Amino acid sequence: MTPRSAPGAGGNGxxxxxxxxxxxxxxxxxxxDEYPGASALATECYANLxxxxxMLMELHxxxxxxxxxxxxxxxxxWPSSRGPARRRSRx
Length: 91
Prior knowledge:
Layout: E1 2-3, E2 25-26, H1 31-34, H2 40-68, H3 72-77
Antiparallel strand pairs: 1-2
């Protein structure tokens, strides 16, 4: 799987409707032959979803670092520094 730029208007791959933009990450044309029973479209969807999640985390980390001067590790523990959540009473 590699990120590629779209070679046209999009929608030119197998299983894609015309006018649908190309994904950021594409699998090879022979991926379904190489992995019988696999779906190239599903693999591309999953790979692009993971990539989008990574990009969102990077954006969040950058904004947190710029606004609060926090690195990602302290930033993850920051909400829990306000104290423990309400505890259930023991009986």
